[in-house]
Design goal:
The protein has one domain: GroEL (3-Layer(bba) Sandwich), CATH 3.50.7. The protein contains three helices and four strands, in the order βαβαβαβ. Strands 3-2-1-4 form a four-stranded parallel beta sheet, sandwiched between helices. The longest helix has 15 residues. The two termini are 25 Å apart. Belongs to the chaperonin (HSP60) family. It comes from Ornithodoros erraticus (European soft tick). This is Heat shock protein 60.
Length: 152
């Protein structure tokens, strides 16, 4: 209990062995990964790893490339990686991200948001709070991308 502190979360699960195990995770862990294997950027294992990345959260599906161009341009101008966490990313938006990753070398990855329904929306909000980000697609949210400072 001391290791996680007042604001930490403790999860207890049934194990398959007779021994107790303790795993402490710094930050946040969720059960989803990159949407396309073209985002892989490590030689050891099929992983995507970035430091000091900008994070864009969306409670909506992203299919239109126009909706993410400002985020791609901001990440490129700041020379920082961009992590997009959304209900889903597909179509023109996904293909543009993959092309920018492969041809231009833009550090970008799309991740499908964890959970389902209202639980997904709440989880995205929790992730935004943990990173200092803003959730796009939220009712009444008229912020500009440049006004956000979410990082991971």
């Amino acid at each position: 209990m001391k290791r996680v502190g007042r604001d930490g979360v403790i999860t207890v699960k049934d194990g398959k062995t007779l021994n107790d195990e303790l795993e402490v995770i710094e930050g946040m862990k969720f059960d989803r990964g990159y949407i396309s294997p073209y985002f892989i950027n490590t030689s050891k294992g099929a992983k995507v790893e970035y430091q000091d990345a900008l994070v864009l959260f969306s409670i909506q599906k992203i299919s239109n490339v126009q909706s993410i161009i400002p985020a791609l341009e901001l990440a490129n101008s700041q020379r920082r990686p961009l992590v997009i966490v959304a209900e889903d990313v597909d179509g023109e938006a996904l293909s543009t991200m993959v092309l920018n990753r492969l041809k231009v070398g833009l550090q970008v990855v799309a991740v499908k948001a964890p959970a389902f329904g209202d639980n997904r929306k709440n989880t995205i909000h929790d992730m935004a709070i943990a990173t200092g980000g803003v959730v796009f697609g939220d009712e009444g949210n008229l912020l500009k991308l440049e006004d956000t400072r979410g990082t991971c």
